[in-house]
Amino acid sequence: QPIPEELQNGEGFGYVVAFRPFGTTTWIQTVVTSPDTPRYVFRNESILPFSPYEVKVGVYNNKGEGPFSSVATVFSAEEEPSIAPSGVSATSLSSSVIEVSWTAIPWKMSSGRLLGYEVRYWNNGGKEESSNRVKAAGNETSVRITGLKSNLAYYTAVRAYNSAGAGPFSATVNATTKKTRKYLEFKAGRDIMVSLLEEMMHYSSLLPLQVLYRTSSQTDMNVLNTDKTTAELFLQFNEDYIIEVKATTEGGDGTSSDQILIPRLAS
Prior knowledge:
The chain is mainly beta. The chain has 3 domains: 5-75, Immunoglobulins (Immunoglobulin-like); 86-177, Immunoglobulin-like; 184-262, Immunoglobulins (Immunoglobulin-like), CATH 2.60.40.10. It is 0% helix and 47% strand. The chain contains no helices and 21 strands. The strands form 5 sheets. Strands 1, 2, 3, 4 and 5 form a 5-stranded antiparallel sheet that branches. Strands 8, 9, 11, 12 and 13 form a 5-stranded antiparallel sheet that branches.
């Protein structure tokens, strides 16, 4: 932080920047003559990425040198990852969720700090350039992509990134989301009892489901949460009902099924 003018105590005020590679004993010094300058950049092609340096900053004016700051450790700039993740695979978990996993790239602290991975995905009807992206933290090696369309092939690729930028993408892999099939059963009773089944293959029992329903005259959906693949709704006579189902995960809600219309019954 620049020294306020009232504390400079005279003409010819400036800074002395001293630095040295961490672990060495000889200081390199340079003078910054502008009292308002908040930074100094040292350029040298031989500096390795993310190299630690000890730095201290002193002050001077026409009367002589003032004190130095305490010594701080700073690092030279990082370089972006140079290799792509390997072992990338994609697995369909449901009609709206796929899981992408990969092997962590070997990383040296001398190159910087790995912030995480970026997963790019697009469907077979879209263009790779307009793909969507999700991120995973540096110690994670898988991510779930939710909200996808059923029975559709999705392509994915993974790359690592840090503060300097992103590395190359991995080879592209793909997975096809599962088909969704719907069944309705009607049973007699004083009210209409509807049994609705949303089949999501083997993963259905692992995903909480939401059954959303309303009358055709309503705007807000009623919600029934269940961890089963069936739900019973007691619906009034003389009303049309609209029903849909969607899965919920920690990553967010999945895509809703097609809406099902149950027409009113007079008796």
